[in-house]
Structures are given as C-alpha cells and as structure tokens.
Specification:
Layout (H helix, E strand, L loop, with lengths): L1 H15 L18 H33 L8 E5 L9 H6 L9 H9 L7 H12 L3 E9 L3 H10 L7 E5 L8 H14 L3 E7 L2 H4 L7 E4 L9
Parallel strand pairs: 1-2, 1-4, 2-3, 4-5
Helix pairs in contact: 1-2, 2-5
The structure holds 2-acetamido-2-deoxy-beta-D-glucopyranose (2 copies).
One 2-acetamido-2-deoxy-beta-D-glucopyranose (NAG) binds next to helix 2.
C-alpha cells in the first residue's frame, strides 16, 4: 500500500524537479502546458503529498493496533527517521524551488541549525501513541552529529519528547552509505536485545538492509533521495 503511494508520488516529482539536477519544470515553457495548468498541477502535488503521507501513517497506526505482541519488558522498540518523517523540511525546499535547485549543504545545515522545522502532525500523533504503549523510540538520522543540539531543540519545539535514543552520523560513519550506517545502528539495538517492531522513514535507505524490523513503512518524499 505505502509502496503504491510512493510510486504515485515519484511520478509527480516531475513537478518539483530532481534534487540532483538544476532542473525545474516550473521554468520550462511548453506548448501543451500553460502557466495556470502548471499551477494546478503543482497545487495538486502539494495536496496529494499531504494526503499520501497521512494515508501511509494511517496504515502504520492500523498495523500497530493489531500487530505486535508487545512484551512490556522495556525491549520493544520502534525506529523513526527525523527529516521528512518527524520533522518537515518542506519550508526549506519551498524557498529553494522544491528540489529544483541543486542542494546547497551549507545553507541547508544553516536552516537546520535554526531548529524551526515543523512537525508532521500525523507522525507526531503516532509517535506519542506508540510511546504511550511503552515502546522505546529510537531516532536514526543521517544528520550530522554536529547538529545534535539543534536537532534535539527542534524536536522539542515541534512536540517530540521521551525518545530513548538519537543516533546521528559521526565522522567515523562518513565512509558508509546511509543504508549501511542505518543498518549498523539497528544492529547495535538488536545486540542490546531490542525487538524492532517497525521503522517509519521517508527513504528506502532507512528501511532496507539487515537487521530488518517487524514491518517497515516508507513515507513519500519526492524532493530528495539518499542512498
Ligand atoms: C492528485 O490526486 C488526484 C486524485 O487522486 C489525481 O487526479 C491527480 O492527478 C493527482 N495529482 C498529481 C499531480 O498527481
Ligand atoms: C551555498 O550557500 C551559502 C550560504 O548561504 C553561500 O555562501 C554559498 O555561496 C552557496 N553555494 C553555492 C554553490 O551556491
């Protein structure tokens, strides 16, 4: 289900361009597409992104309501990504062509340091629901370790608290691909005896690889891709 939603969004990513390229459909003129139809197209992308992302979170909640034989021994765990899973980077991308411009890491980091990213409301709700069930929450992010205090402050500002771990990328992780780095972080948890019931992330690199989880959920993100 979530996968299908993602595919739909992958198609609509044409609208906002590809993060890797300095290319933006908004600046292309075409015989078949006038400005107003483009505007409608992009507006429908915006609405669909929210709807798809909410539907994916509904799936998560539905799954959790019946899935897991939680042991309540403090070893039940759930993993979240941070960016575009718990916090939205859309305000940043909105100012930068929705991915139509090549990402400027310096200005993106400066934005993250302001700790102003808003919560994705449906994720915030689920975060607290699963925490209230006694499940330990681990955040595994590909943000750099140097952004730790800004990230913690941002999470608090957005209404998140009570997680059990926040893993960020240190210098020693830099040689690894994101997927490997995230797998290693999960391996550390399973070694400590945690049962990972689920992962919610917006990147395939957050949910692929071993050790896996009871079930994984991929949220839409058509602005960027991390491998
Ligand atoms: C958004 O969803 C509607 C209804 O499902 C669909 O008709 C429309 O084409 C979608 N917009 C885009 C940009 O995919
Ligand atoms: C990236 O952003 C920084 C800070 O806003 C700016 O000084 C720099 O020139 C930008 N780099 C590129 C390649 O645009």
């Amino acid at each position: 289900m979530a996968r299908n939603l993602v595919l739909i969004l992958a198609l609509t990513s044409l609208c906002i361009g590809l993060a890797a390229a300095d290319w933006n459909i908004l600046s292309k003129k075409s015989k078949n597409r006038d400005a107003s139809s483009l505007k409608i197209y992009c507006e429908s992308w915006r609405i669909n992104y929210t709807a798809d992302s909410e539907r994916a979170m509904e799936e998560v909640r539905l799954h959790v309501s019946s899935c897991c034989a939680l042991q309540g021994d403090g070893k039940d765990a759930w993993i979240f990504d941070v960016d575009d899973t718990l916090l939205s980077t859309i305000p940043y991308y909105k100012k930068h062509g929705f991915g139509g411009e090549k990402l400027n890491a310096t200005s993106f980091e400066a934005w993250m340091k302001q700790s102003k990213a808003p919560a994705l409301d449906h994720a915030l709700k689920f975060f607290h629901e699963i925490k209230d069930k006694g499940v330990k929450i681990f955040l595994i992010s590909s943000r750099s370790e140097t952004l730790r205090s800004a990230t913690v402050e941002n999470l608090f500002n957005a209404g998140y608290h009570g997680w059990s771990g926040l893993t960020l990328r240190g210098l020693e992780d830099d040689f690894m691909k994101v997927q490997q780095y995230k797998s290693e972080a999960r391996r550390a948890l399973t070694k400590e005896g945690f049962r990972i019931w689920g992962i919610v992330g917006d990147q395939w690199s957050s949910v692929e690889g071993l050790p896996g989880a009871g079930r994984t959920f991929k949220l839409p993100n058509s602005m960027y891709y991390l491998s």
